[in-house]
Design goal:
Length: about 325
């Protein structure tokens, strides 16, 4: 297609599936806000966020209706994708209403591996080269996902609706787990109980400690990528979303989408970054090793489930009345 083709009038009925699943997720979490209203730090602010998102989605849809073309329809996916930035911190607001379970997951790692891989990995692999390589992979997370979605929107447009649904629905499934399964991760847990606790093999429960404490273990900065990762964590990270790892999970979903796109360059260029990212989740102490392992298998489950659900919905909606 030429650039002019994107601006030819071409009206397509209905919402993107990404828009629909975003509205469903917003409706469900609005109910959660009502349920936890008295325990949340800023429930009114969370409601305002939803009104802003509805306004942004409505405005983009209205602009599209004024001049329906492919370019403006593609732009309608921007608010749902940007919403991920707002919905992630909310998993902390919700899950911190429950007692944290890090002692269980630290104990699982100790039982399976005889140590705490999140504390051992970066003491065994100490070179600046590998530190920067792992942090580069971790930092590439959003760029990999963005590149894949843009590729579908621009180069695989007929499949973009399904790819977007699989991507966003998988993200929301991870978020739903985090809202009811409070696990902060080793960078928070071992800051709270002390790194020395790993040597004892006894991991104390911390209950509601992370409702009021968000301090992390400070990593050693060895280069630009470790600085970038730390900066991103200081801005957006919370004691939430450790199990299963969405970094491993959603990067796996992204790789599966890249494979389905049938573009070998997209898939193989991202493969080294994907492998580094998976290792980095434990190396930078963001996850217990069991989190990352389960993140991979959960991604396979979510990819299959959301693909099946999309096909089921569209088969039903397209069937003769």
């Amino acid at each position: 297609m030429t650039l002019q083709d994107y601006f030819k009038k071409d009206y397509e009925k209905g919402l993107w599936s990404m828009e629909s699943i975003t509205l469903i997720y917003m409706a469900f979490t609005t109910l959660l806000i009502g349920f936890y209203w008295n325990g949340l730090a800023d429930p009114m602010g969370m409601m305002v966020t939803r009104l802003i998102m509805l306004g942004a989605m409505g405005a983009m849809y209205g602009v599209y209706r004024l001049y329906p073309c492919r370019a403006l329809r593609i732009l309608r996916v921007v608010p749902p994708l940007l919403g991920l930035i707002f919905w992630y911190p909310e998993t902390y607001d919700f899950c911190s209403q429950l007692p944290y379970l890090d002692h269980i997951f630290a104990g699982i790692d100790q039982t399976l591996f005889g140590c705490q891989p999140a504390l051992v990995f970066n003491t065994v692999v100490t070179s600046t080269f590998w530190s920067e390589a792992f942090n580069m992979g971790y930092y590439a997370y959003y760029y990999m996902m963005g590149a894949t979605l843009i590729f579908y929107l621009l180069c695989r447009y007929p499949q973009a609706d399904k790819a977007g649904f699989v991507f966003l629905a998988s993200f929301f499934l991870f978020y739903l787990i985090y809202e009811f399964l409070p696990v902060a991760g080793p960078q928070y847990y071992f800051k709270a109980v002390g790194v020395e606790a790993a040597d004892t093999g006894v991991f104390p429960a911390v209950g509601y400690y992370f409702q009021t404490h968000t301090e992390m273990l400070m990593p050693e900065i060895k280069g630009i990528f470790s600085q970038l990762v730390l900066g991103a964590q200081e801005v957006g990270e919370r004691p939430t979303a450790a199990f299963p790892s969405s970094h491993v999970g959603m990067s796996t979903v992204t790789m599966l989408l890249a494979w389905k796109a049938r573009n070998k360059w997209l898939f193989w260029v991202m493969m080294p970054l994907y492998l580094l990212l998976c290792c980095a989740t434990v190396y930078i102490q963001a996850h217990y090793l069991i989190d990352s392992i389960c993140g991979f298998f959960t991604a396979l489950l979510f990819f299959g489930l959301t693909s099946w659900l999309f096909n089921r919905i569209h088969k039903t909606s397209n069937s003769p009345q």
